[in-house]
Amino acid sequence: MTSRALSFLQNLTSPSSPPPFPSSSSVNFTEPLSYYGLESPQLVRYFSHPTPQYYHAHYDHFDYLLPDPTTKSFWHGGEGRLYNRVASFFVYLKASEDIEGGGTNFPLIDFDPKNLDPRTVDSLNRLISNGDIIVKPPKPADTPESQSASEGPLSGLTFNPKAGSAVFWVNLHPSGLGDDRTLHAGLPVTKGEKVGMNLWVKRDFGW
């Protein structure tokens, strides 16, 4: 998943314009990196009082394709083109100096160095040593719903909040189906305050 994410990010930051909408007959279901825009940004704010605030474990991708209201067409009954969230950014805009908790947890991610590029391992190890991420054994893949954000980072990979940093991941497999490993949660802010921004990248699937 790391190499796919890096490839997607390279494509996303290319100076060239996003590719045009493909026709329904030309959608390439083997290419996971196509995109055409962003949903409206979503700002979120979490406090520790009166009770620690968090967001439960969830997926960003949809279980089924949705019509995009920004692409409504008279010739298609007023419906928009079908899309899903191919990728996500979560940007930490603010993290108070006294913050505790509030990380972004991926309970099903298995940090296995032998499956990763050595450069990726080095980068992740630096993040671990700096306290930017926490690594624990992943939760069994057959019980993702049992992960409770209110209980803290029980398993997997957790990115601690740091103002000016961001987490990026790819939500879909090349087939267009959701990647179950992207289950994630906003862990409780037990002290301080966190402000973040969600950015969801759209992939077009035609009419």
What's the shape? Answer: globular
Weakly predicted, low-confidence segments: 16-33, 141-148
Helix content: 10-25%
CATH C-level class: Mainly Beta
Topology-level CATH name: Jelly Rolls
CATH level-four homologous superfamily name: q2cbj1_9rhob like domain
Radius of gyration: 18 Å
Arithmetic mean pLDDT: 79
Number of domains: 1
Structure notes:
Helix content is 11%, strand content 31%. The protein has 207 residues and is mostly beta strands. It has a single domain, classed as Sandwich (Jelly Rolls). The two termini are 28 Å apart. Mean pLDDT is 79; it is low at 16-33 and 141-148.
Outline of this structure?
This protein is mostly beta strands and 207 residues long. Helix content is 11%, strand content 31%. It contains two helices and 13 strands, in the order αβββββββαββββββ.
Give a quick set of tags describing it:
globular, 31% strand, 6-stranded antiparallel sheet, metal-binding, 207 residues, 5-stranded antiparallel sheet, mainly beta, Jelly Rolls, Pro_4_hyd_alph_FE2OG_OXY
Topology:
Blueprint: H1 2-12, E1 37-38, E2 42-47, E3 55-58, E4 66-67, E5 82-95, E6 100-101, E7 104-106, H2 118-129, E8 133-136, E9 156-159, E10 166-170, E11 184-186, E12 189-191, E13 193-204
Antiparallel strand pairs: 1-13, 2-13, 3-11, 4-5, 5-10, 5-13, 6-12, 7-9, 7-11, 8-9
